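Protein modeling request. Please complete all fields; requests missing the sequence field cannot be processed.
Requester role: graduate student
Desired output: 3D structure, token encoding
Chains: 1
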Amino acid sequence: MPRPTCPTCHRPLKVCYCSALVHIPNQIRVLIIQHPQEEKHPFNTGRIAHLCLDNCVLVIGEQFTKEDWAEMLTPGSALLYPSLSWLPDTDAGQSKAAKPRNVDQLVVIDATWRKSKKILHLNPALQALPRISLEGDLQSNYQVRRSSLPDSLSTVESIAMAMQQLEPQHDFQPLLRPFEKMIALQQGSAAGRDCGE
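Delivered output (197 residues):
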């Protein structure tokens, strides 16, 4: 018999993190493009950002039509993604301190690195967007899921850092509270199983 799960965070009730959810009134819209495999991943953090940001849209898919992108992308859209040699040059700033002007929408790919590259290859509209890249010594607290690349952040950590730069008048650190609670609950649950509980 399957364990009962929370309808909001999709986690088992024992490790539901919804009591830590916050509401942040962001002005710049966040558009999360979530890979279908992430939708049901137990430690997905794109969902956390979607639940906490008042101005956020989450779309699930791997490839979209030109018509889809015409509806989803505004003239002031910018892609949050590292600088890669095969991506077209854009006018976006390539350091953590620089950003494209007049950003009205931050586009974020919620996927593993391999899957995010595939989404970029399949969607030239994303490749052409101005980019915001986070650089420097990036420290992640994503202890329940590992990345193959150094200086990798989870989706929610990346969004919190980028939005803090784009909207310095707002505090985006509370966005990490449910993320941290998810990790703590999972580690506590794992420790309980190790002790035979």
